[in-house]
Amino acid sequence: MLEYMTEVQARKAICEIGDKMYNKGFVAANDGNISIKISEDTIIVTPTGVSKGGMPLDSLVKMKMDGTIMGKNKPSSEVKMHIRVYQLNKSVNSVVHAHPPASTAFAIARIPLDRPIMSESILTLGVVHVADYALPGTKEVPDSIEPYVNSHNAVLLANHGLLTWGDDITQAMYRMESAEQYCKIMIYLRQIGEPVEFSCNQVSDLIKIRENLGIEAGGVPPCDPNPVQKNDRTPEAELIEKITRQVLAQLK
After folding, report:
1. Half-sphere exposure of 239 (CA within 13 A, CB side)
2. What's the pTM?
């Protein structure tokens, strides 16, 4: 049975995660929003127009899933996508949205995080697809993420940012950090060469480990049964590559 935080615990946890997001540079100005479910039909969510760093406990909004607000503060306009996640996936207890720079770059380029290059990302995060573009604050936003809520753990919002969810706020935040780390590594790789990806057998082994950890969602990244390994190249291939690099350097 799902155990909920008390209202006070949820408020404290959201403010702590808000500080962490702000200090990591995942948000700027009043970007981002965070929520925690404290009962079957009630959530605590960050307010509109407030920086996620240094939020007072009493600035957070208590509201019902049907949109009823308890108090004078107004929730983020993007609370609609939080509510959609909770409605569709009953195992979720927290949702986090932010604009981490590397992840947001991938969202703008509309590149999914689906290459099997790191065991950690497959185990804890899984594949992250790009949702169709939707105007922020509109009903189209929750509609765009709906295909991924039950089968995955996160989604890139086209030209917008990143949305993650989890059993608790710590897991939701870890998934955001994992996605940002993946994107940074992919950017580094593009500067030094193509990554060596896992084979389908290796991916399958990792999925089994993930299932044993009790993580059912995440999807399976596309894979090659026999990916080319760096050390599989012949000395002749290495020599040709070296000569090619030298010729290109001279032409420049």
Report:
1. 3
2. 0.89
Q: Tell me the torsion sign for CA atoms 146, 154, 192, 236.
A: negative
Number of Cβ within 10 Å of residue 7's Cβ equals 16
User: Under 8 Å CB-to-CB from 97, ≥6 apart: which residues?
Assistant: 32, 33, 34, 78, 81, 82, 157, 161, 162, 163, 164
CA distance 90 to 172: 15
Of 184, 217, 168, which Cα lies nearest the Cα of 25? Answer: 184
- For residue 199, give the DSSP letter: B
* Single-letter code of the amino acid located at 15: C
Identity of the residue numbered 62: K
Residues 143-199: tens digit of each pLDDT: 999 999 999 999 999 999 999 999 999 999 999 999 999 999 999 999 998 899 999
Alpha helices in the chain (DSSP H): 7-23, 79-88, 101-109, 119-124, 140-145, 169-192, 200-212, 235-251
CA distance 146 to 129: 12
Q: Give one DSSP letter per residue of 151-170, joined into a string.
A: T-SEEEETTTEEEEEESSHH
Measured CA to CA in angstroms, residue 5 lies from 45, 96, 163, 178 at distances of 13, 16, 21, 24
